[in-house]
Amino acid sequence: MIRENELAARHLVLPLFVQEGQANETPISSMPGQSRLSLDLILRRAEEVVEAGISGVALFPSIPDDEKDTVASASTKPDGLLQKTIRALKSNFPELLLITDVALDPYSSDGHDGVLIDGRIDNDQSLPILAAMAVSQAEAGADIVAPSDMMDGRISAIRDALDQAGKVETAIGSYCVKYASSFYGPFREALDSAPRGGDKKTYQMDPGNAREALRELRLDEAEGADWVMVKPGLPYADIIHLLRTETDLPVAAYHVSGEYAMLRAAAEKGWLIYEDCLMESLLTLKRAGADIIFTYGALDAANLLREEY
Ligand code: PBG
Fold it and tell me: Which band of pLDDT confidence, cut at 50, 70 and 90, is reported for residue 193?
């Protein structure tokens, strides 16, 4: 009766890892319950997602090393793995929101989100590459492109490119406040996308900073973001709350791979109960102010909610 915040399946987004092949499932060892899936298996998973009332999926392609290069050329191929997946999902499940990641890393031989020139990430030379990637995803049928690269000026570069391509209705879900976090480890294992040299600290945010999140917010609002995300989730609940009080845009939170892995690992040891701790984590993200939650536990949570958890 007096509960102030509620979870609902429609607020959840399930991240999915896509790989080539047929009936090809590769479990991710650091993320029990999660696998890289070939397109046929993605379609089956999507059916469960729609059935569970989850609003959307976030798609992450696993690209073989021999297709990677320094400028992520494979990211704009009209018949690329991601583009094929988007088209198949859209035609089978038109009501399911398709959210795509815009960043060079899965396609980059350097494993960075921007382009590496003379050993440094070149912000401005990354922008046209990111914009072309977003247009290619939108043309394949993505509903929301989600830049996770943290280059400055990318929201306006992407908005302009989408508009010029006639994709005026494609939304931009910005990874607005993304920290240089150690909680992304299992995700990088899943996609073999860890930086080959250096780290991401020249473009992702310092965990010590909160005011800087407001600067990122102002820039993204002015450049045309349709939502603003904070990532990781629980360790940055204060930042989610800060954005919630400062913006009228929807706020998203990403309960990231490391957060999921910790729950699963402790549960495997019998030290805590996965389901209870997952639901408590997600409710905390809601209470902090998140409207939308990306979580690898989306299907588990949605099924628990059906049982009136
Ligand atoms: C890539 C990207 C990352 C995640 C989402 N998009 C990893 C990174 O920035 O290195 C992390 C998601 C997770 O850990 O669950 N730009």
Answer: confident
Length of the chain: 309
Report whether residue 188 contacts ligand 1, using a CB cutoff of 6 Å: yes
What distance in angstroms lies between residue 125's CA and the mean position of ligand 1's atoms?
21
Give the per-residue pLDDT at 307.
87
Domains and CATH numbers, the chain: 9-306 (3.20.20.70)
Q: Is the CB of 299 under 6 A from ligand 1?
A: no
The half-sphere exposure of 299 on its side-chain side, counting CA atoms within 13 A, is 14
Q: Are strands 12-18 and 56-61 parallel, antiparallel or unpaired?
A: parallel
**104 CA distance to ligand 1 centroid (A)?**
11
Q: Model pTM?
A: 0.97
Pick from 150, 187, 191, 196 the residue to mutate for probing ligand 1's pocket: most ligand atoms within 8 Å of its CB. Answer: 187
Nearest CA to ligand 1 atom 2: 148
What pLDDT shows up at residue 304? 96
Burial class (CB in 10 A: 0-12, 13-18, 19+), 91: exposed
Taking only the tens place, the pLDDT of each residue in 274-306 is 999 999 999 999 999 999 999 999 999 999 999
Q: Which residues are catalytic?
A: 178, 231
**In whole angstroms, what separates CA 125 from the centre of its chain?**
23
In the numeric block, which tokens belong to residue 74? 């494979």
Q: Ligand 1: which atom is nearest the Cα of residue 257?
A: 15
Separation of 167 CA from ligand 1 center, angstroms?
Answer: 25
Mean pLDDT of the residues in the chain: 97
Could you list the beta-strand ranges (E) of the chain.
Answer: 12-18, 25-27, 35-37, 56-61, 97-102, 115-117, 120-122, 144-147, 171-178, 227-231, 251-255, 292-295
Ligand 1 atom closest to residue 178's alpha carbon, by position in its atom list: 9
